[in-house]
């Protein structure tokens, strides 16, 4: 992604910035505020996390989201296959 972020991209990042401060069902907020499914939201957010433009726009948020993503990926990769618990 090169160039300036779209309005939709900025809205997605704004929701991620504010979300930890709010309770409730995030999927409902995504649909109500952004008019998209949660699946589409997370697809677009995943792309934004990789975007240099998003990193320039909000380096602290993108850094936090990248750390969360990386920690989850590491956790998945170190699970024992077949182990539930």
Plain-language structure description:
This protein has 85 residues and is an all-alpha fold. It has one domain (7-71). The chain has helices spanning 7-18, 26-34, 38-50, 52-57, 59-77. The chain starts with 6 loop residues before the first helix and ends in an 8-residue tail after the last helix.
What is the gist of this entry?
The protein is 69% helix and 0% strand. By secondary structure, it is an all-alpha fold.
C-alpha geometry: globular
Tell me roughly what share of residues is in helical segments: 55-70%
Distance between the termini: 39 Å
Uncertain regions: pLDDT < 50 for 5+ in a row? none
Strand content: under 5%
Order of helices and strands: HHHHH
The Rg value, from CA coordinates, equals 15 Å
**Structural class based on helices, strands and sheet pairing:** mainly alpha
Instruction: Output the number of helix runs.
Output: 5
Overall mean pLDDT: 87
What is the total domain count? 1
The strand count comes to 0
Describe the largest sheet. Answer: none
Fold blueprint:
Layout: H1 7-18, H2 26-34, H3 38-50, H4 52-57, H5 59-77
Descriptive labels:
single chain, 85 residues, mainly alpha, 5 helices
């Amino acid at each position: 992604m090169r160039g300036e972020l779209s309005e939709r991209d900025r809205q997605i990042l704004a929701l991620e910035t504010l979300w930890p401060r709010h309770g409730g069902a995030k999927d409902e907020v995504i649909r109500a505020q952004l008019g998209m499914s949660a699946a589409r939201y997370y697809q677009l957010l995943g792309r934004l996390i990789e975007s240099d433009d998003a990193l320039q726009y909000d380096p602290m948020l993108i850094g936090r989201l990248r750390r969360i993503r990386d920690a989850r990926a590491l956790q998945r990769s170190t699970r024992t296959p077949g182990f539930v618990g």
